[in-house]
Amino acid sequence: MAKKVALLTTNFFHPKSERIITGGAERYQVDFCRLLRDMGFNVEVWQMGDNWTKEFDGIKIHGVPANKTEYHTFPELNMAFYENAMAFDYSVYFILSLAYPLVHEKSIGISHGVYWDWPGFDTTTGKQEIKQEWLRRMGISLAGPQKLVSVDTNTINYFNATLPSFYNKWEYIPNYVDTDLFCPHEEDLTKDKIRILFPRRMVPVRGINETMRAAEILTEKYPAIEFHFCGRGHDDTIEMLMSQWAKKQERCYYYWKPFEMMPEIYQMADIVLIPSRSTEGTSLAALESMACGKPVVAGMAGGLSDLVLDGYNGYLIKPSVENLVSSIEELIKDSKKRRLMGERGREIAISFNKKRWDERWAKIIADVFR
Amino acid sequence: MPKLTAMIIVRNEADRYLGRCLESLLTFVDNIIITDDASEDDTPELCLSYPRVKLYRQPRSMFLTDEAKLRRELWHYTLENKPEWILAIDADEFLEESSLKEIPYLLRQRNFKAIGFRLFDCWGSEDFFRVDGLWNPWLRGFSTYLVKYQPELESAWPSLKFHCGRLPLAYRQLIHYESAIRIKHLGWANPANITAKYERAIRQDPANKYMGHEHYESILWPSEKIETSKWREHLSI
């Protein structure tokens, strides 16, 4: 009989609505569940929710009414999962802090990147005693699972410097890209235009406000450039405001596209911006742009420095308006550099191929789930 | 490419937007199933002038007396024509042309069996849409217009005479993908029709069961009280 894996996350579905929050972590979850299924496991997912069960991509997702958070951990959800998933053979804690306080015997914890570099984290957890308690709980989260997997080296480095005794538990499996699906287009699709793409959710930590300002400055200065903002807002109002703003600008466009269409969107860009301020792992969007042969202007956050070498396949910047403008200008002015950096990005992306991700994960799963 | 079938209910549309609507639909759908609700003008002839349209005619009008029945019948006619994906649309609604390239991707993807869109009510002309109060297209959510036919789902409609929805209830409860393609609704675009539409709306819902009194009254607001925003076609991508 097939062995059963239970996966715990916080919000795949919005707890109270049908809206799916389709960010990188959610895509990762779908791919990860597919991999487990391909390896012969039965997988079910738990998250916060009002006692419902839904299905997505053939996987059952259970909502449990445990919404309380303390010190950025979810002990109520963790305990509800511990009891609910008792009949399962193995567990995956899809976010590290979900492994506090107690985990099943054979389990894996995953980090999608540091999220405590976000300024809002400091405003809620800034007091010394609160921070200490959060860190104590993180220590317990790391102690439980048999393996800890991180999508970037930044998370591992942070914990090795902070809670060093878990050194041997860590595995680095960076994010991935399907390099057959995301590949360069043979023709130059923009011709006499230069198209700059921001393929991100419209949220401050992703550098949206800095990018909008940079777009205003650069579109005024260079008649050939277009700015494309491609991604969802966190709510309807943000999408309305983005649309209203874009409408007022010259050559600025706001939309989003289904995942299946994204290779084409990247191919039609000349420069891709991933100007995150914080809460980054090894961004899927960055890897996909690189796989499509595009230079990337990335923020110095999380695991973006695992993907972008400053001056080699793009620029790694503190994403201020000024820095964005100057690094984009470098690329606007030099089509050879854009092409060269894009080619190098493609080469780097090949080492992040989805097949490698599958193999690395299969090995760890086989080690722990036996 | 999966087959896409549009289904529409029409009544006395010959002098309105039906011709344009069918022309626009036929650029991206495979066939169109139409129920004609006892039109008294040339609507049936207009429908039949398009070879990919299949027309079913009602002898007596039901839209104002039993909309649910009319919808159910159209659904069953559509199923008779072996659909794969079904687009439930009205004769005065247009998917914005600049984004139609997205449609094949939506039909080919496998994660979602229902697709939602935002509806923009053009007001007083085709170039402006209304944004005040409940008219704001950004803030009133997405509605499911496009679904993949699934024989295992029930075809039941709520037993409502009006505002009963375009699709069977089970389809409206599916987890849907929210598309950025906007639907341009021209039902309110012609100022000459607004009063008649208002009167019909309050006749159908005298107790304000479906919409608040203020929303109905806002139909007749003077132009200085109404907020609109200019429609700009998206860049074609």
UniProtKB/TrEMBL annotation, chain A:
Indicate yes or no for the key word Transferase: yes
State a single Gene Ontology molecular function.
Answer: glycosyltransferase activity
The keyword Transferase appears for this protein? yes
Which InterPro entries does its entry note?
Answer: Glyco_trans_1 (IPR001296)
Which residues belong to any copy of the Glycosyl transferase family domain? 189-347
Q: Which Pfam families does this entry report, sorted A to Z?
A: Glycos_transf_1
Q: Which UniProt keywords apply?
A: Transferase
Q: Which PANTHER family match?
A: GLYCOSYLTRANSFERASE (PTHR12526)
Q: State the protein's name.
A: Glycosyltransferase involved in cell wall bisynthesis
Species source reads Desulfosporosinus hippei DSM 8344
TrEMBL record, chain B:
Q: Which domain of life is it from?
A: Bacteria
Gene3D superfamilies assigned? Spore Coat Polysaccharide Biosynthesis Protein SpsA, Chain A
Q: Does the keyword Secreted apply?
A: no
Q: Which Pfam families match?
A: Glyco_tranf_2_4 (PF13704)
Q: SUPFAM superfamilies per the record? A: Nucleotide-diphospho-sugar transferases
What are the GO MF terms of this UniProt record? transferase activity
Q: What is this protein called?
A: Glycosyl transferase family 2
